[in-house]
Design goal:
The protein is an alpha/beta fold and 458 residues long. The chain contains 14 helices and 24 strands. Helix 3 runs parallel beside helix 6.
Length: 458
């Protein structure tokens, strides 16, 4: 069976469904292909379910600290992971069904549930169906990367996806990988009652961040009795009954850590190895990410790649921005490119880290004259009132143009506060505009103008 469409969208992560709707609303006949769960990583195994679990972990943490706020909470706090999962699953299901209903209700749309593979630059096969179009959009996302570690094939390890299916908190969770996934699950399950050991190959956590931010995050985790091992190069893993071991080398020599569960959080890999991209002639880099230009076009005319699989962002919001760029160029006659985008993301430990633009280190590399403003959260009234004083705020500006180059807000509400700075960066407004703004008291945001008034040459 062969059928022609005005557009084919492969994958229903953050970019795909929104683009399919825009194209259908423009009068196009659109085929959407999904091989597993509608909504992609964010809805099913990423942002939505993990942040629901982070919220449960936060509730447990605050309940244990009730006495700090003059609240008597007896008996001792107990986490029911089955109920945590039920809440998380219900939230994800609502989002997943919403995406599915929207796509299946599109006027002129068709949904194919199965594995898409290119048969040619203009043809995609899904089961026995062959779909043809001059416009094909790839939005297939990523999955957890599995490292080449001797003995791992004998171990019942977990990834970000399977981690959320546990109905009992591990007695001792070993995490390999000290970046976003590892840190979020580490703190989460520590608050659920697990002993946690976190193993990171690099000399510090979150190596992409400035050292002061990385050190502050390290302190937050160790304050909650998370055992962090740095400079630890894993050399093997093993399973004995219900116990798992990880062997690693460090400056102190060879060491072994034993636990009940192992989570691998060493990065992501794109879902591009089984799409038949060779048949379409679509080029990928050495890691398997589809190569695209500044408008998300691949090397093959009429084929675009959006979202995590193009290696240009790796976040739900960057995937959605990919959709906006493509739709604006194709449908709105308003040219947009990836170059318009300012990097922004968050780490959802507690307190969260909100990031925008360049780090101080990255700003220095550009050769600009910079100024830096910092304030510990312990000197923020709102944080003191909430009893959440860990972290710091940091802003980097160009001393000559006076434009804001970047910000790191590690503290209560940091994932929201950073947007005030990000908006000023998009406006390309000189920092005195924000410095002179009147903010509401008591808030965390009200200290941003103060920080900008206390800049020091970098």
């Amino acid at each position: 069976m062969s059928e022609s469409f005005d557009a084919i969208v492969i994958g229903t992560g953050q970019a795909g469904p929104s683009l399919a709707k825009r194209l259908a609303d423009a009068g196009m006949r659109v085929a959407t292909v999904e091989r597993h769960l509608f909504g992609g990583t964010c809805v099913n195994t990423g942002c939505i379910p993990t942040k629901a679990m982070v919220a449960s972990a936060y509730a447990a943490h605050v309940a244990r600290r009730a006495a700090d706020f003059g609240v008597v909470a007896d008996p001792a706090v107990r986490v029911d992971l089955t109920r945590v999962n039920a809440r998380k699953d219900a939230i994800s299901e609502r989002s997943r069904l919403g995406v599915e209903r929207m796509l299946k209700g599109l006027k002129g749309g068709a949904v194919y549930e199965g594995h898409a593979r290119f048969a040619s630059p203009r043809e995609v096969q899904v089961g026995s169906a062959v779909l043809r179009s001059d416009r094909i959009f790839i939005n297939v996302g990523c999955r957890a990367a599995i490292p080449a570690m001797p003995g791992l094939e004998q171990v019942r390890y977990l990834t970000n996806s399977s981690m959320m299916k546990l109905d009992v908190a591990p007695s001792h969770l070993i995490i390999v990988g000290g970046s976003y996934v590892g840190l979020e699950f580490g703190q989460m399950f520590r608050r659920f009652g697990s002993q946690v050991t976190l193993i990171e190959k690099a000399p510090r956590l979150l190596g992409r961040e400035d050292e002061d931010i990385s050190d502050a995050i390290h302190a937050i985790l160790t304050d909650e009795a998370i055992d962090v091992r740095l400079n630890a190069d894993c050399i093997g893993a093993g399973q004995s009954g219900d116990s798992v071991t990880v062997r690693f080398r460090s400056p102190d020599g060879a060491q072994t850590v034993g636990g009940s569960h192992l989570l691998l959080a060493v990065g992501r890999r794109p879902n591009t190895d089984d799409l038949g991209l060779d048949a379409a002639g679509v080029a990928c880099d050495a890691q398997g990410y589809i190569e695209v230009d500044d408008q998300l076009r691949t090397n093959v005319a009429g084929i675009w790649a959006l979202g995590d699989c193009n290696g240009k962002g790796g976040f739900t919001h960057t995937a959605y921005n990919d959709f906006e760029i493509v739709a604006s160029n194709l449908l709105d006659n308003r040219p947009r490119t990836l170059a318009d985008r300012i990097p922004a993301y968050a780490l959802y430990i507690d307190p969260p880290l909100g990031r925008a633009g360049l780090t101080e280190r990255e700003a220095r590399v550009t050769g600009r004259r910079i100024s830096v403003g910092k304030r510990p959260m312990a000197r923020v009234s709102r944080a003191i009132e909430k009893g959440e004083t860990k972290g710091l705020m940091k802003i980097v500006v160009d001393s000559d143009s006076r434009e804001i180059l970047g910000a790191a807000i590690l503290g209560t509400g940091g994932d929201e506060v950073v947007h005030g700075v990000l908006d000023m960066m998009y406006a390309k407004a000189p920092y005195p505009v924000l410095q002179r703004a009147m903010h509401i008291h008591p808030t965390v945001s009200e200290l941003i103008p103060t920080i900008l008034s206390e800049l020091s040459p970098g």
